[in-house]
Structures are given as structure tokens and as C-alpha cells.
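Slide 14.
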Amino acid sequence: MNNTYPMIEQIKLLFVTKGYEDTSAQDIMQICRLTEADFANQLKSKDHAYCLVLDTIGQNIDDLIFYNYADQQITPEQKIIVYIQNYMQHMILVYPHISQNSMIDKNKWHNSTIHYAYQRLEYSLSALLLEIMNTVLYELNSVNLLGWNTDYLRQQIKQSNSLTLSRALDIQHNLYHSKIRVHSDNTDIDIKRNKWLEIQQVEEEIMNTKERCTLVKTLLHCIEQYPIIMLDPVGFTEQRRYELH
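Slide 15: predicted structure.
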């Protein structure tokens, strides 16, 4: 993947700029300077190239979360900003094409491997939102540079009286502490990575789609009440730093 990453980034820019339907295999070969034989050997098809783009975005998101847990210097505010910026970036760059009629024929979409690649990416994007929730609930102080009312999310959770939400939060809480323990162990990065993958597998097994969606909806409702950090997180943080000092 390291050798092909620059090429995948070029292909991503191409799809973002032209859209799926208007991007041809010839376009990909041209921008990547591939012969037809190289294209067939490395990328196989336009659909496969698109799936590689989506899966690379998902892997980048997973790497971001993994290394944020490892970084002892990053603040909760910085985590939230990075997670929101990544979420918005990928929503803007990738998902608008889904709603466009020119994106891909609906019949082909439902029978395509691209559909499953999008499902994998949706799961990765939801992971960013759940990590925002973790940071707000377990790390962010009530007085913070984002001006985020940390009590609001807790109040929404308490007032919901939802058994599904309560169970999902218990699972998420345990997973959060498992991730913390991975990086507290004095082991090399490969061992930590393997443990991280095990946690992800457990998460997929014990948290169903309804529980995951309930967590995401709860957080998004909270973000809607405090949208300023999504619009200008850096500028607003600087303003809050000035006010608090």
C-alpha cells in the first residue's frame, strides 16, 4: 500500500473532480502514467480503483484514531477538531457524489462491490463520530477551548431513557478503556496494532448496527446545538484561548 499510496491519492482527486461516471479508465491511466497492461495488473478496473480509494480513506481514518490514542501530548480539544475536520473533509469529498444521478446507475450500484466499499467507509466515518463522543465524555473538561457544553451531551443521554443507548454506551465505554490500555502497555507498535485489530473485531461482534446508529445520532444532535466548532474550529479555539486567559 505504501508504494501505491501516491497513485491512490491521484485517483481520489480525479474521482472527486470529475465524478465517478465521467471518469474513465483512460483518465486513470493518464494521470497515473500507466500502460494498459500496468492498469490491468495493478488496478484491474475503474470499479476496483474506486474501491481502493474508499478503502484507503477508511484505513487513514483508522490510523488517525490509533495514533491519537498513542499521542500523550494531544489535547482533547485538538482531538475533537481533527476528528471533525476529517469527518467533514471526507463527507464533502466523497458522499456528495452518491446523491448525484450521474454518479452511478442505481441498478449497477446495488450489485457493485462499490456498494460494500461505501459501507466500509461509512463504518470508518462513524468511528470518527464515536471517538468525538469518547473525547467529550471521558477527556474534555467542562471549561474548554472549544466552548463545548460537556454537560449537554450527558443530559441528552440521561433524558433519553433509551435502553439501546444505555447498552451502546456501556459497550463503547469498555472499548474506550481497552484502547487506552493498548497504548499503556510497554510493547512494540506491531503488537499494539494486533491488539487494536482485536478490539475492532470485538466491537463489530458485540455492537449491532442499531446501537451504533443510536450513538451516532445522539452525538450529531449534540453537535447541531454547537455548530460553531464545525464551521471555524481553529479560529474559535484561538478566541476561546484568549477569553480564558
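Speaker note: Residues 192 and 213 are 28 Å apart (CA to CA).
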